[in-house]
Design goal:
heterodimer, A: alpha/beta, Rossmann fold, six-stranded mixed β-sheet, B: six-stranded mixed β-sheet, 34% helix, binds zinc ion
């Protein structure tokens, strides 16, 4: 079995060690005997996103060049998502995949439009450890797959953006402790088909092995129709998850 | 007494603040509380302009800022100056924000509010330059390097570099001593007249230049955005670089280190820039070798610290001989690769706080032959940075090495470091989880390795130092 993976803008969107998610995702595949093939794509390369089972987009500060390039690549990225590619986007990556992004000076930039969401940037950052209750439908899926027995998600958020979801976007979870999308409505992240956007750093997958396996299963289903993952020993990840959960509760 | 001093009217609030600070310092000492920030914090609450009133009574104030190496550089400089008969006030315990700097000066001044030492060496947190520089007006600023560090506190690296530039704009007469090998640092000196640079000479490599590797934060040209091309890297983004599109390049170092030997001791030659001549392949710089230095420190990165401190001392008129002698006698500060005796074996304590730093520490550890056991202790208190995700930027796969026998994961984030090591490829049988400081040392002590190491983040470092000191010789 084999997965084709695309790491988008690894050189420009690399803040907060989000590329750790790539390492975790790939290791968890390899430990199960699944081969991974990674393409590192930056500007201004042309890409066939529909070739990829998993696409990753991290956070960063550099908005100009990435933004311009991403708008050109946007329709193809959307096409891949419509075709079932799994996409994980963090922080700035998440924001740019929404419908629009309003900067502090008032200028509004159109987004790629994968998520029915818009973002406004304000001066104060929302930061700190964050605890979510995983969205119920995701919880069900994770249970069905026999993933790690966790019904929460843990991460670290640090963002001046406030994101508001429209009707077509589902959140990743409900905020128990922390701020989430906007600090008001208790939602965190956005989902559309197999695309996921979130503010959670940490990196996200390091303390959430159940979410890592859910993404992995979906990517595997796309590549080979298989949905079975051999269980791994996740004691350390679950320990790290639970220690932080206990502190935040 | 300095004439500037008389111009500053020290009002009632200053004296209340000053005495309150001294009072707090006295009680800290009485109860054996470190008290490196509290006296200053109390005084600043009462009189926020405290520093501007105290600073003018110093003949010279030298500030050291940047991400890594501030503490060692300032301590070395204090050490060199002391040996040459110049006493210096300093915040040598790493309390490098506004309150720590205020504490250092309050403690150094007489009860009349006049400086005892002619010089103050201030280690300044890169996020605090905006508060400390305008009020202390340092005559010399040393900038070590800029790496990603504790980002949840300041937003980003660019922000720190911009902050430094802005703070320096308000100090047009301040001289700068900059690390030439770091393109991010070099930008701080552009358009200024009194700038000197220091750097380390490396071997040119064609193969690796401009490719591969992580933690190359400054890889783009600050002028035109083009990726920088490197003749060689030392580590991170430090090296000899130029922009292929414009004239930006590594400035010619005024102080250059050559012929580095990095074994148990660091040995290298310190050279001065003499002149630039036209050679066969363009301009060639000639250097005069001044002295051979030898220091009881480990880790390549410490060469930069010694180099910066020596260069600053030279600009203050200290002789080469005194520098060479004092550097040989230097004892590192807590946790800067400080060596203890633990269970009859050497145990080295190292502060780790960011990816570039921990990579260098790991390289130094692995250069030692023989079996090793480690404690890696990560806390997430404000002083450590509450976000520990930087662990994923560091190359922990180095520790997947046959000479590493056991790694005890400790601190409030013991789980995070264990997970990181697991994904770095360290076999699970080599990992132990023990969040407690005392407990982790106990487990370390029974490993029977030839050498021990403790890598700790800031807020737990002193706990380890205290425990290791107690057990010394046992
Ligand atoms: Zn350029």
């Amino acid at each position: 079995m084999k997965l084709k993976i695309c790491h988008l803008y690894p050189d420009l969107l690399n803040l907060h060690s989000d590329q750790g998610n790539m390492l975790i995702f790939c290791r968890r595949a390899e430990w199960r005997g699944i081969q991974v093939e990674i393409d590192y794509i930056s500007l201004p390369e042309k890409v066939h996103f529909t070739d990829y089972d998993f696409i990753f987009l991290g956070g960063g500060t550099d908005q100009g060049p990435v933004y311009k390039d991403l708008l050109e690549k946007g329709p193809f990225l959307l096409e891949a998502v419509e075709n079932g590619s799994v996409l994980l986007s963090i922080c700035l990556g998440y924001q740019l995949l929404g419908l629009s992004f309003k900067k502090q000076d008032g200028t509004v930039l159109p987004g790629v439009g994968i998520f029915d969401a818009y973002t406004e940037e304000v001066p104060e950052r929302l930061q700190g450890n964050i605890l979510l209750e995983t969205a119920p439908d995701l919880q069900d899926e994770i249970k069905r797959l026999g993933g790690a027995p966790l019904d929460t998600l843990i991460g670290f958020e640090n963002h001046p953006g406030r994101t508001y979801l429209g009707k077509k976007a589902q959140p990743l979870g409900r905020v128990i402790k922390g701020h989430g999308n906007n600090g008001e409505d208790k939602t965190e992240g956005a989902r559309y088909k197999n695309a996921l956007g979130t503010y959670l750093h940490g990196p996200l997958l390091s303390k959430n092995p159940h979410l890592a396996d859910l993404l992995l299963t979906k990517a595997l289903y796309r590549s080979s129709g298989d949905v079975h993952l051999d269980p791994l020993n996740d004691d350390l990840e679950i320990y790290a998850h639970n220690v932080m959960k206990k502190r935040l509760r | 007494m300095n004439t500037d001093l008389q111009n500053v009217s020290k009002g009632l609030s200053f004296w209340t603040a000053f005495l309150a600070g001294r009072f707090v310092a006295f009680f800290c000492r009485l109860f054996r509380y470190p008290g490196t920030s509290l006296p200053g914090a109390v005084a600043l609450k009462i009189c926020p302009s405290m520093l501007s009133a105290l600073a003018p009574s110093y003949e010279k104030i030298i500030a050291v800022t940047g991400t890594n190496g501030k503490t060692t550089t300032s301590n070395l400089l204090v050490h060199i100056l002391r040996f040459s008969g110049i006493s210096a006030a300093s915040n040598s315990e790493g309390a490098n924000m506004l309150s720590g700097v205020a504490t250092a000066l309050i403690k150094d001044c007489t009860l009349g509010g006049v400086a005892r030492s002619p010089v103050a060496i201030l280690e300044v947190d890169e996020g605090s330059v905006g508060g400390i520089f305008p009020s202390t007006k340092p005559g010399l600023v040393i900038v070590t390097n800029y790496f990603c560090d504790q980002m949840d506190r300041y937003g980003s690296l660019d922000h720190n570099v911009t902050l430094l530039r802005q703070s320096l704009d308000g100090l047009p007469r301040t001289a700068l001593l900059l690390n030439a090998d770091d393109p991010l640092v070099v930008t701080a000196g552009r358009g200024r007249s009194a700038v000197k640079h220091y750097g380390i000479k490396g071997k040119r490599l064609d193969r690796e230049a401009n490719g591969g590797g992580n933690t190359r934060e400054g890889q783009h040209c600050p002028d035109c955005g083009e990726p920088l091309v490197y003749y060689y890297y030392h580590y991170g983004q430090l090296g000899d670089y130029y922009c292929p599109q414009c004239t930006f390049r590594r400035p010619t170092p005024d102080f250059l280190v050559t012929d580095v030997q990095d074994e148990d001791f660091l040995k290298f030659s310190l050279c001065f820039f003499e002149e630039e001549k036209e050679g066969e392949h363009g301009a060639v710089c000639s250097y005069k070798k001044v002295t051979r230095l030898q220091a009881p420190l480990r880790g390549f990165y410490n060469i930069y610290n010694i180099l910066a401190a020596s260069a600053a001392a030279i600009t203050m008129g200290v002789s080469n001989d005194i520098i060479a002698t004092t550097i040989q006698k230097y004892a590192p500060a807590t946790g800067r690769m400080e060596e203890f005796l633990f269970q009859d074996r050497s145990c080295t304590l190292a502060l780790i706080k960011n990816a570039a730093g921990v990579n260098e520490v790991m390289k130094t550890i692995l250069r030692k032959e023989g079996e090793k056991a480690l404690v890696i202790a990560i806390n997430d208190m404000p002083a450590d940075g509450r976000d520990v995700s930087w662990l994923w930027d560091a190359d922990f796969s180095m520790l997947d090495h046959p000479s590493i026998k056991k790694i005890i994961c400790s601190g409030r984030r013991a789980g995070d470091i264990a997970v990181r090591l697991k994904y770095a490829g360290v076999p699970l049988v080599k990992l132990v989880l023990e969040p407690g400081c005392r407990g982790s040392l106990e487990i370390l002590g029974v490993q029977g390795a030839e050498e021990y190491f403790v890598l700790a983040s800031y807020s737990t470092l002193y706990n380890y130092a205290k425990l290791l000191k107690k057990r010394r010789g046992r």
